[in-house]
Amino acid sequence: MLDTAGPAIASRILQILHEFYFITSRIGPGAFSSYNFVYYAAIDLLTSCPTDVAKLILTIAPIQCRNSIPRHGGFWLTSALVGKIPTLFADRLRDLYFLNLCEQVVPVLSPAIYESVLIPYLSAYLVSDLEVIHSHFEAAHSVMLVILASPQSADIAATVMPFYVDSVFKAFPSCLSARQFRLAFRTLIGEASPPRPISTLHPNVADVLLEILCEKIVVASPCALSGDMKENSVGLSEKDVCILALIDALSRMRGRTMLRWLDPASKLLNGVQDVGSRQRITQRFWDVLSTELDISRAEIAVRWWGDVGRQYFLEARTA
Hints:
Distance between the termini: 74 Å
Shape: elongated
Number of helices: 15
Strand content: under 5%
Order of helices and strands: HHHHEEHHHHHHHHHHH
Helix content: 55-70%
Largest sheet: 2 strands, antiparallel
Structural class: mainly alpha
Strand order of the largest sheet: 1-2
Number of strands: 2
């Protein structure tokens, strides 16, 4: 009896918390240990039954996602209106609850729901030039990264990833900090590299993302970021942070991909005009090569260092 009733009860609890979120959000759900226990216990119980998870997500999906399209499997999947953000604050809070819940249950949802409901809906909050609450923006990015990391979304991820990367680039530096941008790009390269499923189905995705980053570097501003961009990035320019994102991602690439990008990364480093920034980027490059690579990548890096890498670093230090 409990095996069948449990997920239904958990679903009802999460629906009730959804309706009360305009109250709990004012204090912060994290302030209530009992709230957290009930919330996460209900999620744990519900995720044991993926069918009930899908029903719940389609039930509490925001209003703009409810242009229903009948699909197989007994569900009514929806077609989101891209770019539609509620005007009422209470509706935006319900959206935030929906985003936070989706981040927890994405691994048990089907790719059909990713494609028909979540990804189109998320696009509204991923656009940086809209006036949105920053917590929604961060939650939408978190959900998208979980979707891209999901093993069953490899086909969808190959299509969505370049467009998501474009939204990340547009959000930096206005909405994303230097640290968040670097972390997001490093995560994307990791998801597009072995042993992730997308690297088997689409082995060139990582190179495509890196090419997009290089295009961004060409047009990025060489002026120092504003004082609001903290997190050890003071004095760095937008171009510097993009180069650092490339260097950070080296440890997540497959070996032969990393070898191809060591030379371009070194040339970009040597092209940095500001002496202080060049020294900081050089130190980060050295830290990645000397401490963050596994054995197979380290062997490749050692061979590269002996061939041409050492000369690049000497040029960077003497420029």
